[in-house]
Amino acid sequence: MKNLDLIIKNRKENSETLCWCLGFNNESELKVKKYVDDHGTRNFLLNYKSLNFTNENMKRIKVLKRVIEKYNGDIETIDFDGEGDF
User: Fold this and answer.
1) What is the per-residue burial (b if ≥16 Cβ within 10 Å, else e) of 67-84?
2) Which residue, 39, 36, 44, 38, is CA-closest to 68?
3) Mean pLDDT within 60-80
4) Rounded mean pLDDT of the chain?
5) Which residues contact 72 (CB under 8 A, 6 or more apart)?
6) 35 and 44 in contact (C-beta within 8 Å)?
7) Which residues contact 79 (CB under 8 A, 6 or more apart)?
């Protein structure tokens, strides 16, 4: 159970960081937090196009994803702070 608590804590921290980096608030912020809390950062970055963001917010996510990939490699292989996939 301790491991699950750590995964949940890491996901919450990562969702907060994503929203801050992207400048999201209100509906977009809630959408990011819910998805990341439930599915993780990796899944969010791989599936954000299905979440019906505005064009502007889609561009922001796409840029952030490119920056992450540039410095950390392929999204599918990055360990986002031990979030785990469940």
Assistant:
1) ebeeeeeebeeeebbebb
2) 44
3) 86
4) 89
5) 78
6) yes
7) none
